[in-house]
Amino acid sequence: MTTPKTALISKNPLSRLSKSLLWGLLISILLLALFTKLSEDLLYNELGTFDRIVGELIRGFATPSLTSVAVVITNLGSAYIEIGLTVLVGGFLWFRLKHVWETSLLAISLSGAWLLNTILKDLFHRARPDIVHLANAGGYSFPSGHAMVSAAFYGVVGYLVWINLKNRSKPSWYVIVFTFALILAIGISRIYLGVHFASDVIAGYAAGGVWAIACIIGLKEIRYYKSKK
Predict the structure, then answer these.
(1) Rounded to an integer, what distance in angstroms lies between the CA atom of residue 108 and that of residue 110?
(2) In this structure, is residue 17 part of a structural domain?
(3) What distance in Å separates the CA atoms of residue 52 and residue 153, rounded to the nearest whole number?
(4) Residue 214: is its pLDDT beyond 70?
(5) Residue 5 within any structural domain of the chain
(6) How far apart are CA 144 and CA 147, in angstroms?
(7) pTM for the whole thing?
(8) Is residue 77 assigned to a domain?
(9) Side-chain half-sphere of 182: how many Cα atoms within 13 Å?
(10) What is the span of the domain harbouring residue 194?
């Protein structure tokens, strides 16, 4: 028998999403704190030593072959690749699996991340590293657009693949590992190619991670209300 108290709890979004919501909020707070710290250090010119050490360390492994690989990896974070993947993955989700909201989530994660990144770049006005660029790059540097959008977009794609495999009782852990490895590789490639500082990339991860979490929690909320209809 359902008591008034039980009914009240079941209608409370915080009780429904308590675990995922609390974890999402906790991680988001940590990521926002990291982004805030980097932003403050940037404004007070305190990132120079860190960026120099990390940049020289990563670029110290430079070889012609590795540069070619880095260019390929960095292109996975480019707009035309991510738009193409949105069309392909979104088309499969929509027409094959009839997951309309998941398709919308892909488009929102990508377009929202690019929009937020543009706003942040215009806000901080940080110039790119004054070294040889091994890849084409324009605009401001902080936060890294490739790192931020990749964290948001590939994070959401990885989540959708992971949850669908998990719901079908299929192995899914490797999806999480691959997703994080891809996002990390794209960010490192930007430092290696000389088009971003390390702090740009880390800030991009932080901002993109917050946006990805917001998108995923939004999807879980929509799924809940759909299941109640």
Answers:
(1) 5
(2) no
(3) 29
(4) yes
(5) no
(6) 5
(7) 0.87
(8) yes
(9) 20
(10) 23-227
**Residue labelled with tokens 């998108």:** 215
pLDDT at 5: 44
Q: Note the pLDDT of residue 227.
A: 63
DSSP secondary structure of the chain: ---HHHHHHHT-HHHHTHHHHHHHHHHHHHHHHHHHHHHHHHHTT--HHHHHHHHHHHHTT--HHHHHHHHHHHHTTSHHHHHHHHHHHHHIIIIIS--HHHHHHHHHHHHHHHHHHHHHHHHH-PPPPSS--SS---S--SS-HHHHHHHHHHHHHHHHHHHHHHHTT---HHHHHHHHHHHHHHHHHHHHTTSS-HHHHHHHHHHHHHHHHHHHHHHHHHHHHHHT-
Whole-angstrom Cα distance, residue 41 to residue 199? Answer: 10
C-beta of residue 102 within 8 angstroms of C-beta of residue 219? yes
- CA distance linking residue 21 with residue 92, whole number of Å: 28
The tally of domains found in the chain comes to 1
Residue 174 resides in a domain: yes
Token reading at 51: 């960026």
Confidence of residue 34 (pLDDT cuts 50, 70, 90): very high
The answer to whether 195 and 135 have CB atoms below 8 angstroms apart is yes
Residue 61 is which amino acid?
Answer: F
